[in-house]
From TrEMBL:
Top EC class, one word: transferase
Protein name in UniProt: hydroxymethylpyrimidine kinase
Involved pathway(s): Cofactor biosynthesis; thiamine diphosphate biosynthesis
InterPro entries (UniProt xref): HMP/HMP-P_kinase_dom (IPR004399), PM/HMP-P_kinase-1 (IPR013749), Ribokinase-like (IPR029056)
Species for this entry: Hymenobacter frigidus
Length: 257
């Protein structure tokens, strides 16, 4: 007899192509052994190469979506993606913690669409500090972390922000034969590497990584282990085909020794 899957929630935008946002998150959660629930924050008009516009969901409707899910399902792990307003995001995270103080929140800060559409400018430092204080993990790429926190390098920015919450600095925008993600937290840095693939660029790869990490946390993994397995899962999606939309797989997780 199989045991029930844990639940995890994605609060994110709807991407009709399924490469990013809610659809990508729920595919990833399912493939990682977690039942994925979704709350829509935005309806985007896009595909894997073009972003035209976005229609934002009202904050009251976002809360109502969440409220009914929390009333029905045991949700201790939530990923947050595309959101209209960072001050409103802070209000939401504090409301969420009021509903369930055990919540572990993973924030994948979507500041700019792959096709170039900008959602947020640099936040006020105090707002960023307050947001990070509510998070279990922040998962920016290199351009995003420099937009969040000005610094000479992305590593320096990630280290500074990690004073408030752990930061996984994604390495997809760096150069070199390997793509290396760096986990900053508690004064230490851990590296997770995978070969850089010749046709490995994928629309929404950052969403996949953060959702895979969330799934592992929901399954009981420690943060570093969740990042390692999430990185390995994302590598299978990047290697799945040469297009910009990756395929997800069941039973493809690396086995523990």
């Amino acid at each position: 007899m199989s045991t029930p899957r844990p639940c995890a929630l994605s609060i994110a935008g709807f991407d009709p192509s399924g490469g990013a946002g809610l659809l990508a998150d729920c595919k990833t959660l399912e493939a990682n052994g977690v039942y994925g629930l979704g709350v829509c924050t935005a309806l985007t008009i896009q595909n894997d190469v073009t972003f035209e516009r976005v229609s934002w969901v009202a904050p009251a409707d976002i809360r109502d979506q969440i409220r009914l899910l929390l009333a029905r399902f045991p949700i201790d792990f939530i990923k947050i993606g595309l959101f209209e307003s960072l001050p409103q995001l802070l209000e939401l995270t504090r409301w969420l913690k009021g509903q369930n103080p055990r919540l572990q929140l993973v924030w994948d800060p979507v500041l700019k669409a792959t096709a170039g559409f900008e959602f947020h400018q640099r936040p006020d430092p105090e707002l960023l500090r307050a947001l990070c204080a509510e998070m279990a993990l922040l998962t920016p790429n290199r351009p995003e972390v420099l937009r969040l926190w000005p610094a000479p390098t992305a590593e320096a920015a990630a280290e500074a922000v990690s004073a408030w919450c752990p930061v996984l600095l994604k390495g997809g925008h760096a150069a070199g034969a390997e793509a290396t993600d760096l986990l900053f937290g508690s004064g230490a840095v851990q590296a997770f590497s995978a070969p850089r693939l010749p046709h490995g660029e994928k629309h929404g790869s950052g969403c996949v990584l953060s959702a895979a990490i969330l799934a592992q946390l929901a399954r009981g993994a420690a943060l570093a282990d969740a990042c390692r397995v999430g990185k390995a899962y994302t590598a299978t999606v990047l290697a799945s085909n040469p297009s910009l939309l990756g395929y997800h797989f069941h039973n493809s997780l690396p086995h523990e020794n």
